[in-house]
Amino acid sequence: MPAPYAVHPQQSRGRQYAEPAPAYRSEFQRDRDRIIHSKAFRRLEYKTQVFVNHEGDLYRTRLTHSLEVAQIARSVARSMALNEDLVEAIALAHDLGHTPFGHAGQDALNKCMADYGGFEHNLQSLRVVDWLEDAYADFSGLNLCFETREGVLKHCALKHAQALGEVGQRFLDKTQPSLEAQLTNIADEIAYNNHDIDDGLRSGLISLEQLQEVAVFQQVWQAVNARYPTLTGQRLIHEILRRLIDLMVTDLTETSLAALRGAHIADIDGVHQHGTPLMQYSPALRAQKNELKRFLRHNLYFHPSVYRSTWRAQQIIEALFQAFMQDTHLLPAEHRQFALRYSETAGESGQARAIADYIAGMTDRYAMKQYSELFDFSRLV
Ligand code: MG
Asked: What value does the mean pLDDT of the chain take?
């Protein structure tokens, strides 16, 4: 039985386009199924998380990242009696709007779109599920439940919130989303903090010795070392990381349950109206987690080797955007039609939005292919 403060499917605020209830699934299971069957979901396989896709087969991609987020979120949801189907749907959809080349791509596209309303990947994930998927006869997008859309839109600039209607309202009212949405957001962070350590070590860009400066990592390493003093290599790394994930998940679960009890939260309204998110770490673990994030930022995301790929990725995105803006005939026919149609109502910003949709939808390898087709002039001879 879901807890009283969980999202209950029968209380869902429904879909934008009304549909008969599914016979043998919950509404949120149906959402999850639509997400898995979407084109945007399949593209996640070829989109960078941190390491560019072709650098090695064992690195996380946005697809495996999304699966790890879903796994962590479901474990916590089950132990807290939250809605497991809903967290799974949100987790699998949360990165659907991500550009090729990870955060480098998002930053570059946001820069290109500066004069045209900007580009935010959370907003783009919502745009994918609300509008860009085009497989259903009766509607554009996936026509997901309000609660799934609310979870997908985890952040949003206030200037955009107004235009989004009911799903943007909480940013204006400063109310909290469901516990399931809060949980998936934190599960995202648990997943990437841990898998980025793993991928960082695999790449050789960071070392176990360096990681000793991070208190929580050292604490877990010592525990592993006490039990397996001779363990090295992959097994050592995995034994540390599985404990680190467990430590974060346990702290999150226990702290959040205590917060729910302490605030006497009886139902979902209590969750929405509470001044701060109820899904939370203890202050001690939050500080440790922030230290870990600072380490990764400094030593991995800004490592010269990663930074060089980041820079190259940005050149590709910017060059494609400028080329398509200069001449829409360079776009595939379908996307040129969107550019023309959107520019009828929103002028140059409309054209830019259609181009941003096209670029954001690209996988890493598709973007690289487009770039070489347009800019490799040896092809002319
Ligand atoms: Mg993510």
From this structure: 94
Model confidence, pTM: 0.96
Distance, in Å, from the CA atom of 345 to the CA atom of 341, rounded to the nearest integer, reads 7
Fold designation for 9-305: Hypothetical protein af1432 (1.10.3210)
Task: Find out whether 298 and 277 touch, Cβ atoms under 8 Å.
Answer: no
Length of the chain: 381
The DSSP 8-state label assigned to residue 18 in this structure reads -
User: d(Cα 268, Cα 184) in Å, to the nearest integer?
Assistant: 16
Burial of 110 (0-12, 13-18, 19+ CB in 10 A): middle
Chain mean position to CA 254: 25
Residue range(s) occupied by CATH 1.10.3210.10 in the chain: 9-305
Cβ atoms 197, 208 nearer than 8 A: no
CA 65 to centroid of ligand 1, rounded, Å: 7
| 326 CA → ligand 1 middle, Å | 32
Q: Ligand 1 mean position to 66 CA, how many Å?
A: 6
- Cβ distance 80 to 70 under 8 Å? no
Two tokens, residue 341? 């149609």
Distance in Å, CA 186 to ligand 1 centroid: 10
What is the token pair recorded at 107? 């930053």
Question: Would the CA dihedral through 260, 261, 265, 267 be positive or negative?
Answer: positive
* Contacting residues for 17 by C-beta, under 8 A, at least 6 apart: 138, 139, 143
C-beta separation of 125 from 94 below 8 A: yes
First to last CA, the chain: 68
Categorize the per-residue pLDDT at 157 as very low, low, confident or very high, splitting at 50, 70 and 90: confident
Question: Which amino acid, residue 212?
Answer: Q
How far, in Å, from the CA of 188 to the mean position of ligand 1? 5
Distance 330 CA to ligand 1 centre (A): 31
**Cα 196 to ligand 1 centre (Å):** 12
Contact criterion met (CB below 8 Å) for 338 and 354 = yes
Identify the DSSP state of 80.
T
Strand partners, 61: 48
CA distance 361 to 98: 8
Q: 159-202: per-residue pLDDT in tens? A: 888 888 889 999 999 999 999 999 999 999 999 999 999 999 99
Helix (H, G, I), strand (E, B) or coil at 303: coil
